[in-house]
């Protein structure tokens, strides 16, 4: 009778002990998972900020290149225009010289 009364008590103590171990294990695992999540989150945030910095730098570089390209284009257009003006002037000189030459050839000879 006394033996039977002690058995459930032992069971309760044993179960309490086991669930205490279980709870401790669960808490440790939970803490470990929280730590891992924090590490992953930090890594993600670092990568994200690194990528955003890279994108911003790349955008800046692209803007600089676009600005330089625009400047180069304006310079080249101006030089082309100068060359066209020079060419027109040379062409008109040629026409003038040809006209003079024709006039000279058609001049009656007086001597
Ligand atoms: C940022 O740029 C550096 C240098 O180009 C590169 O090594 C790094 O991997 C880039 N970061 C990301 C997140 O792409």
Automatic annotation (TrEMBL):
Just give the chief location class.
Answer: cytoplasm
Q: Which residues form a coiled coil?
A: 41-107
Q: Name one Pfam family in it.
A: TACC_C
Q: Where is the signal peptide?
A: 1-20
Cite the InterPro entries for this sequence.
TACC_C
Keywords for this entry?
Coiled coil, Cytoplasm, Cytoskeleton, Signal
Question: Where does the record say this protein resides?
Answer: Cytoplasm, Cytoskeleton
A Gene Ontology cellular component where this protein is annotated is: cytoskeleton
Which positions fall inside the Transforming acidic coiled-coil-containing protein C-terminal domain? 27-105
Family classification: Belongs to the TACC family.
- Protein name per Swiss-Prot or TrEMBL: Transforming acidic coiled-coil-containing protein C-terminal domain-containing protein
Organism of origin = Panagrolaimus superbus
């Amino acid at each position: 009778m006394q033996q039977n009364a002690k058995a459930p008590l032992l069971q309760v103590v044993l179960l309490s002990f086991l669930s205490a171990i279980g709870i401790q294990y669960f808490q440790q695992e939970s803490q470990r998972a929280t730590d891992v999540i924090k590490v992953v989150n930090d890594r993600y945030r670092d990568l994200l900020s690194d990528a955003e910095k890279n994108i911003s730098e790349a955008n800046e570089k692209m803007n600089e290149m676009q600005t330089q390209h625009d400047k180069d284009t304006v310079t080249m257009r101006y030089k082309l225009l100068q060359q066209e003006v020079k060419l027109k002037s040379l062409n008109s000189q040629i026409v003038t010289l040809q006209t003079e030459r024709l006039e000279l050839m058609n001049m009656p000879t007086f001597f």
